[in-house]
Write a structure and sequence with these properties.
With 258 residues, the chain is mostly helical. Helix content is 82%, strand content 4%. A two-stranded antiparallel ribbon has the order 1-2. Strand 1 and strand 2 form a beta hairpin.
Length: 258
């Protein structure tokens, strides 16, 4: 390889950077190559009076190539070591993430079990409290109903007692008033009652007579209808007999003619 090719190869080397951001927010930066300085290498002036042979030039070029290859091998080794560190760090990070997720899952599962047990316990306590509260309410309701029934019964008994007292007082007053009436008043009352009864009897008799008259008229009408029906039936029977007689006579005449 010539010196120009070596300079070109050195000038074409570029800086390569690789960044990797983890989930935790860390940032890794790996330099895969040293930055190349795009500066033209100064050419050494030939030493006057000294001749360089082709073999010496070849040896120098070989030495330069070996140095370049050694430098590249060192860079590749450094790059491999750095990549191995990155991979190890990534593997450790993955393991830590996996352990964290497993631990978090176990903790969450434990908390969920504890929460479920606590919730069941709270539900049982609430049910027991509601049951006790319902029992107290039922006892209070029964007590209030019994008290209300007793008060109502007492109130009714008082009202009945008062009503009986008033009734007895009214009966006593009426009896006292009746005792005060004289015989004429009683006779007048009896006469009025008898007159009313007589009027009622007369009215009832009139109504009965009207009903009997109506019934008699209706019976007469029914008899007339039945007699009319009988007469119609007899007329039809007579017509039938006459038709039969005429038919029989016609038959006899026909038979005689024959």
């Amino acid at each position: 390889m010539s010196a120009e090719q070596a300079n070109l190869s050195s000038a074409e080397a570029t800086e390569i950077r690789c960044q990797e951001k983890s989930k935790g927010g860390l940032c890794y930066e790996v330099i895969l190559a040293e930055p190349a300085v795009n500066v033209a290498q100064p050419k050494l002036a030939p030493v006057p009076g000294k001749n360089v042979s082709a073999e010496e030039i070849e040896e120098k070029l070989k030495a330069a190539e070996e140095r370049r290859l050694s430098l590249e091998a060192k860079k590749m080794a450094d790059w491999s070591a750095k990549m191995a560190k990155i991979e190890e760090a990534s593997r450790k990070k993955d393991e830590l993430d996996k352990e964290f997720k497993t631990h978090a899952k176990e903790v969450l599962h434990t908390k969920m079990e504890q929460y479920e047990e606590k919730r069941e316990q709270q539900l049982s306590e609430i049910k027991e409290k509601l049951k006790t509260h319902a029992s107290d309410i039922e006892k209070t309701r029964q007590s209030l109903e019994q008290q209300k029934v007793e008060e109502l019964q007492k109130h009714l008994e008082d009202k009945l007692r008062n009503a009986a007292t008033l009734r007895d007082d009214n009966i006593k007053k009426i009896l006292d008033r009746l005792k005060e009436h004289n015989t004429d008043k009683l006779n007048e009352v009896r006469a009025t009652v008898d007159q009313i009864e007589a009027l009622k009897t007369t009215e009832k008799t009139r109504i009965i007579e009207n009903k009997l008259s109506t019934a008699e008229q209706n019976r007469e009408k029914e008899l007339q209808k039945k007699l009319e029906n009988i007469r119609k039936h007899e007329r039809r029977a007579e017509l039938v007999r006459q038709n039969k007689a005429a038919l029989a006579q016609k038959t006899d005449v026909t038979a005689s003619s024959g």
